[in-house]
Amino acid sequence: MAALQKSASSSLMGTVAASCVLLIALALQGGAGVPVGAHCRLHNFQEPYITNYTFMLAKEASFEDNNTDVRLIGDKLFRGVNMRDRCYLMKQVLNFTLEEVLLPQSDRFQPYMEQVVPFLADLSRKLSLCHISGDDQHIQRNVQQLKDTVKKLGESGEIKVIGEVDLLFMTLKNSCVPKSEAGK
Ligand SMILES: *[C@@H]1O[C@H](CO)[C@@H](O)[C@H](O)[C@H]1NC(C)=O
Ligand SMILES: *[C@@H]1O[C@H](CO)[C@@H](O)[C@H](O)[C@H]1NC(C)=O
Ligand SMILES: *[C@@H]1O[C@H](CO)[C@@H](O)[C@H](O)[C@H]1NC(C)=O
User: Fold this and answer.
1) What's this model's pTM, rounded to 2 decimal places?
2) 159 with 63: CB under 8 angstroms?
3) Of 17, 53, 67, 172, which cross-links 115 as Cys (Cβ 3.0–4.6 Å)?
4) Do 90 and 177 belong to one domain?
């Protein structure tokens, strides 16, 4: 009886162990089978209400932005960066915008900020596995220039970042949403 129980339980253990191995194998395969860059993708997120809130937030902030000759999200940011790496670049800009500007200033520009911050944080989470293959130094350099500009401008740099949140939104869409989905 005891021997029977023992063999039943060891075969159960065997099954559990085999399932674990299978799960691990599947997980590894999932990781290795997905090409680099495949996670640099978002589904179309242009719902009317959040688009409106994002544009209203940008508009409110840009009323306070005196510095009209600096543009953060523009040609300079993308200089030398391939089309296919732009989502990865925008991921860095999004991270910076959230961490250094929107979260610290999250009590301002209500009621827009309280809607837009969790929305953008969710996009940032969805891009957490987005990486590119090879050297990303040129991308980091462009992003660093943006960060340096904001830091140099201080408070008015942060206002400018919020004033460009509409550009951030549109550029994320253009860079990360597949063209086949974007028109919908
Ligand atoms: C957003 O909605 C408000 C009213 O709900 C409207 O006045 C405003 O024009 C809209 N803004 C944009 C950018 O669509
Ligand atoms: C920004 O990036 C860092 C490092 O990858 C990560 O730990 C953090 O959660 C990101 N923040 C947001 C708001 O996505
Ligand atoms: C913009 O200019 C006004 C008037 O010169 C000043 O009071 C305000 O602090 C400036 N705003 C920023 C964000 O620098």
Assistant:
1) 0.79
2) no
3) 53
4) yes
- Residue to probe by mutation, ligand 3, list 60, 64, 105, 109, most atoms within 8 Å of CB: 64
* pLDDT on residue 103: 96
Range of the domain at 24: 1-33
Tokens of 76: 């300079």
Does 40 fall in a domain? no
The single-letter code of the amino acid at 56 is: M
Residue 183 confidence (pLDDT): 63
Preceding peptide of 111 cis, ω within 30°: yes
Q: In terms of DSSP H, where are the helices of the chain?
A: 2-33, 48-63, 75-78, 86-96, 112-126, 137-153, 155-163, 165-176, 179-182
Top mutation candidate among 46, 49, 50, 52 for ligand 1, by most atoms within 8 Å of CB: 52
Residue 18 CA to ligand 2 centre (angstroms): 36
